[in-house]
Amino acid sequence: MNDINLIEIPINVIDTRSKLSNAIDKLYNSPDPYTKMKSYYIQNRRKNVYNEKYHNIKNKNKDEEFEKLLQ
Amino acid sequence: MKNLRSFYNKFKIKDLLYFVLILPISITLISNGACADKLEKSNTIIQEMISKAKVNAIETLKLDQNEKSLRISLLIKEYINLNFMAKATTGSFWKKATVLQRERYKNALLQEIVKTVEDHLNTLSTLNYISTDSELRGKKLIYVRGRIEDPNNNKPPVNLLWKLASNNEGNLQILDLEIEGISLVSSHKAETMTILRKNKGDFEVLLDKYNKKK
Question: Which residues 6+ apart lie within 8 Å of A38 measured at CB?
Fold first, then answer.
């Protein structure tokens, strides 16, 4: 049973990596892969960590920026 | 005082009622109707784009990658406000770019957007898109929320948020798309701004980087 568990973890890691291979390749093909990955990571963390109120304020700021650009 | 009294006498109770009650109510009803109409239109646009993407995914199954990308880029171009996205992703550096550089950047940005979303659009033929709600934000923006679900429950649902606004011709177009809280414009902006800042706003360097990665 322990042996199966030992094998399961690396197999899952390889499986996840292969599922994401297309997305990772595309990321490497962008002009600045590091900044892009950083931006994705930060946005994802913000979504998971902060509550609805924070996102509303953040979106309000973005809306103002968008409205200015639309003028 | 006399003038005030005569004005008061001239004013019938019916007119007063009209100004105090009926006029504000009718204004509110008309503006609410206009808002509802705008929200309905936004929802229809997104639904229309999704169904076109589904048809496109089925039709292009046997085509080669370049042709698939070309078909998707034409579809995306029809629905997004590329001019706005180019401005939003380059910030204050947009003013420094020449007309030719702006056009070249818009093309490069479109290709980047196609690269980012084409795989997802191609898998749409087997998934369901469900519109959840829409909301009017500020004077011009409209948020449309939706979810992509796998009918076989093999994949977890993906939450989408579309931001739309009317362009100069009055047509509603997509300004930004958030997939599970990750904004397309924000991530492109982070990338382009870093390159532009490093190179003192030189668009040629940015465009070279896009061309090299093609």
Answer: B190
Query: Minimal Cα–Cα distance from A55 to chain B, Å?
Result: 9
B35 in a domain, yes or no? no
Task: Say what the pTM is.
Answer: 0.79
Domain ranges, residue B84: 43-212
Point out the residues of chain B with pLDDT beneath 50.
none
Domain ranges for chain A, please list them. Answer: 1-30, 32-71
Cβ neighbours of B195 in A, within 8 Å: 31-32
Min CA distance, B140 vs chain A (Å)?
A: 7
Following DSSP, what letter does each residue of B51-94 receive, concatenated? HHHHHHHHHTTTS-HHHHHHHHHHHHHHHB-HHHHHHHHHGGGG
Q: Report pLDDT for B5.
A: 67
Give the ipTM: 0.80
